[in-house]
Amino acid sequence: MTNHQYEPYDALASIYDHWQKNFTRPYFKIVCNQLKKEIRRYRIQPGRFLDLACGTGDAAIFMAKQGWQVTGVDSSSKMLQQAELKAARETENVTFLQQRLQELNLKSTFQMAGSFYDCLNHITSKRTLQKALKQIRKHLDDESLFVFDSN
């Protein structure tokens, strides 16, 4: 994690999980329930999962606990630090990397990928969104499932 550019979520990292718990039902539980539903629907066996804009790692950790080998990617070094602390307590099957989605450059492909908490909405340029989706596609197998939410 060596990106020294300003990342807005760096400022939220230390309070992000607490802030999320103030909702009536933690959003990550909704995400995890949806992931379980899609895995059952498409009969996907655990393999490699890519958590895009993973934040503090809740979905990544959940998937690792389900038997997946998980790579979580986020542009915020502070969010990744929080994710690594949580993952160290809960699972060993998660690797976290600092990268922007439009510059995604990993050495492998994945059977399933996800992007949650309306992360794709934070890419406000059409050109940047196209670049991000192109890079994401390069990291998916031909039969991969990409699950995301958006407002």
User: How are strands sequenced across the largest beta sheet?
Assistant: 3-2-1-4-5
What is the overall shape? globular
Helix count equals: 5
Element order: H for helix, E for strand: HHEHEHEEHE
From the helix content, strand content and strand pairing, which structural class follows? alpha/beta
Q: How much strand content do the residues show? A: 15-25%
Main beta-sheet annotation: 5 strands, parallel
Specify the helix fraction band.
25-40%
Distance between the termini: 29 Å
Low-confidence stretches: none
Rg calc? 14 Å
- Total strands: 5
What's the mean pLDDT score? 87
Task: Describe the overall structure.
The chain is globular and about 35 Å long. The model has no long low-confidence stretch (mean pLDDT about 85). The longest helix is centred in the N-terminal third of the chain and has 16 residues. It contains 5 helices and 5 strands. It has a 5-stranded parallel beta sheet, with helices on both faces. The protein is α/β, with parallel strands linked by helices and about 150 residues long.
Write the layout of secondary structure elements.
Blueprint: H1 16-21, H2 27-42, E1 48-52, H3 58-65, E2 69-74, H4 77-90, E3 94-98, E4 110-115, H5 126-138, E5 140-148
